[in-house]
Amino acid sequence: MSLLPLLLAITAFLLLGLATDAHHRLRFGSAPGPARRILLRKVGWIALVGAFVPAILAQGWIFGPILWSGAIMGGAAAAFLALNMLPGPRH
Amino acid sequence: MMAHAGEAHARARWARRGDIALRIVAAIPLGYASASLWAMALARILPGDRTEATVTASLIALALCAGAAMWAFAARSGWRALWTLAAAGALAAAITWFSVQATGRL
Amino acid sequence: MSKGFRQSQAFLHTWSGMLLGWVLFLVFVAGTIAFWREGLNRWTRPEIARVEQPMRVLAGAQAFLADKAPDAKGWTIAVASAATPGAQVFWQPQPKPGEEKGRRGRRGRRDTQALIGGDGQVAHARETRGGDFFYRFHFDLHYMPVIWARWLVGFASMMMLVAILSGIVTHKKIFRDFFTLRRHRGQRSWLDGHNATAVLALPFHLMITYTGLVTLMALLMPWAVVANYTDERAMGETLFPTAPVVERTGRPAPLVDLTRIAADAERRLGSPASFIEVAEPGDAAARITVSQSPNATLNTRTPRLAYDGVTGALVWRSPAPGPAAETAGAMIGLHAGRFAGDGVRWLYFLCGVGGTLMVASGLVLWTVKRREKLPDPARPHLGFRIVERLNVATIGGFPLGVAGFFAANRLLPVAMAGRAEWEVHGLFLAWAAAALLAFALPPARVWPLVFAPTGALLLAIPVYDIVATDRGLPAMLMQGDLMIAGVDATMAVFGLAFLMIARRTARYRPVSRKPRTPRATAVRPMVPEPAE
Prior knowledge:
Mean pLDDT of chain C: 90
Number of strands of chain C: 7
Number of domains of chain B: 1
Strand content of chain B: under 5%
Low-confidence stretches of chain C: 103-108, 517-532
Number of helices of chain B: 3
Low-confidence stretches of chain B: none
Order of helices and strands of chain B: HHH
Radius of gyration of chain C: 26 Å
Distance between the termini of chain C: 16 Å
Strand content of chain C: 5-15%
Structural class of chain C: alpha+beta
Number of helices of chain C: 20
Largest sheet of chain C: 7 strands, antiparallel
Helix content of chain C: 55-70%
Largest interface: B-C, 38 and 42 residues
Number of strands of chain B: 0
Radius of gyration of chain B: 19 Å
Distance between the termini of chain B: 70 Å
Oligomer: heterotrimer
Helix content of chain B: over 70%
Shape of chain C: globular
Order of helices and strands of chain C: HHHHEEEHHHHHHHHHEEEEHHHHHHH
Shape of chain B: elongated
Number of domains of chain C: 3
């Protein structure tokens, strides 16, 4: 349960990152269409905010928010590194 | 003609520096003073236990300091920054003064 | 959001961040290191073995104090744990008749404190300030009265808070830009790095800055107290409640066994004790006050219990604080991170490193951005030259000083007088040498000259530990002492990192530009938004 917020946050930031032109182009060969961009952002934000729930369930109301903050920072870092450092497919 | 353009340029530069100077005065000494006065006013008017109100007022006042600095630079002009923050501080001072007159201090 | 507003906040962000940015760099470096305060307290005293039985240490502490200061006015025992080098004990002698009450002893008096080690005996370790130095330095600085230092750090922290808030407001596409990392693009790359480290740990940066101000709140914002109280001590009594003071009776009576009291307190509070204070030990009126460890709660102002010193009966329990006091205490707890287990502590540390990089990259970004706009790059204006040299002197020099401190801890003779202070002087001497270079030589040449020795020292120290002490990395791993091993490993990693940075800065060749001819422009444009 304590790991779930982190996994959700990584997913969230990967989706939010892929919603940007540069990263979508790198991974998929073209910029995202408007519908896909909205979908990626929506799901990304839902995952980010939703990560709050397992955090509270895991650590209670005092330490839960701390776990969530840590998870979103860790998730952002992991996604940032993955998006910028992992080589893209050849198009 | 060229001399006038040069002078206008220099005047504009000094006007801008003056404006920034006013904003710095608004942000730092005046901003801190206003936030401190609001710490006092909030400590008086927040309901409940006096120690609790004092702590809450102090926590809020720290944020007000930062807010005052941001306002000092966002305001339309340096003078506007000064008088608005001064007025806010004066209001807080009045609230504090009347409250202390009415119920005194512990 | 209007363009004018965003521009005004961009201007504010730059200056609010930069003017005391060098002070903030010091605070971030020292504060980040201070998250490992207790671990460093142990690492800097290699003579002391790990504490295995805290209660044995406590019993030894009581025996030592009963022997050394049986008629003291008070004893204080910082209870040992596996994380600490031992139990730090202090005692306060009875005031002589006619001597005025008040003035606490000079901080750091050596004749009324001792360290009790894992075996319950006085520990003989090299004199050092250990991890506590970094903790103290990040708000008390050094070589100056602490009140001045706290005002300076407090003021800088408020400027930091303004920089963070204005930075958020001014950044147009804060989330989209977050993922952008343009490499080898000069100013753009520095901007991306600054944005990344800032936005990545933004919750942490906001939290640590505001809560840092809260820790200094009594000094920086005392006015609310003035509004409500004629005597500030009345407020202090509510915020920091204590059991009623005892009067010495003059009738001797043996003090109850402190380990029994500690066990009872742990049972009642649900977690171990951290501080035990004994008032009038050996007297019939003796009173023992036990504070719960802040490791178990968020609020650093932990519950306290008071016991009768002769019978061991519980006589007082601290009242629960109100919500505002609890919130303020929790904020201080968030800042200090004492509640953090190893995992969260690593998170704090990494965020602190991120914050340090944020401050450093912001300071460097200022010069990189302006260098590209200089009319004549070979002859920059005075402000630029000052900032550039302060950057090298601080961002390059202070880490060298820190490496020097750790090296001095290992290399200064153990029996040297004033050893602890000389470790600190070592830090400042190394820093001063770097600063001298920064002001004497062209800045671009000084970066590698200071980063390389920093890296070399930080790599050399773990090697020294393996070769010249019994606390080398392999030995500590075998013993399962992950804290000491972790310090050596982290030092080695940072050493490598500094060497890599030194190589990068040594190889850097800026693109040379012809000096631009000055053109007459109507009005100088305002500084462009940082997000551009």
